[in-house]
Amino acid sequence: MDQAKAERNGSSSDDGRTRKFWRNLWCLEVVHKVRHFAWRAVKGILPTKANLVKRGVIKEDRCDECNEEAESEGHLLWSCHRAQDVWQNSKLHFNFERHRVRSFQDLIWLLLMSENPDVDSAKEVLMIVWAVWHNRNEVRHGGRKKNGSELVHAAKQYLQEFNEANVGLPKLIRNQGLAWAPPSISRYKVNVDGAVFASQKSVGVGALIRDSYGQVVAAISKKINAPLGPLEAEVKAWEEGVKFAREVGVYDFTLEGDSLVVFNALR
Ligand SMILES: [Zn+2]
User: Fold this and answer.
1) Residue 152's beta-bridge partner residues?
2) What's the gap in Å between 18 CA and the centre of ligand 1?
């Protein structure tokens, strides 16, 4: 079995690697819907014909394109001749042997889990599989079928537009003393807090980043030697929280703190 696949299907001792893979995937700076799509594709839960047959929705699972195999994620996005045409057109170069890649899931795993993750290629791969899926749906609804080079062009252009537009401001939430609630799937939550140490003429600020499973992704606490008041300490904490999240590559997040004044000022 291929190493990447063996790792993905590995025992519970590989849980840490699997978590790391999902974290790396969620941290990729692409449009949220694309990241969410990729997550479903890797999990094998897209409404492909194969999955719809399993769920008893339809009776026939053949790929519309080749009519040779069941339309699963693996077939549609990798092994079908249409997908292969797209991958060839992508002209992506990887720093691992191509024969290790048996599916697009292998490809994403190898890109994200190598010693030096190839984030740029991973982003392109995500955009390409999304473009293939999007056009597959368009065609099923009477739209025009794009060829491999058109799909690659569209994927690259979309990624470039997104990079240029960058990302919006994080969503703000004021914690009103309720129990901590996880962010929605695929988002992160950054909780911040500031404290004043008056006698030491300093403040402490902290930020904790958690994913939608409540797992701590990263945390930081800092002491700042400045005689700040409680409100300034809070402001500093919000600021540090945003900065820290960006440093660790988390962009799609909700920022939560408990100062109403800061919350209103930032909103
Ligand atoms: Zn096919």
Assistant:
1) none
2) 29
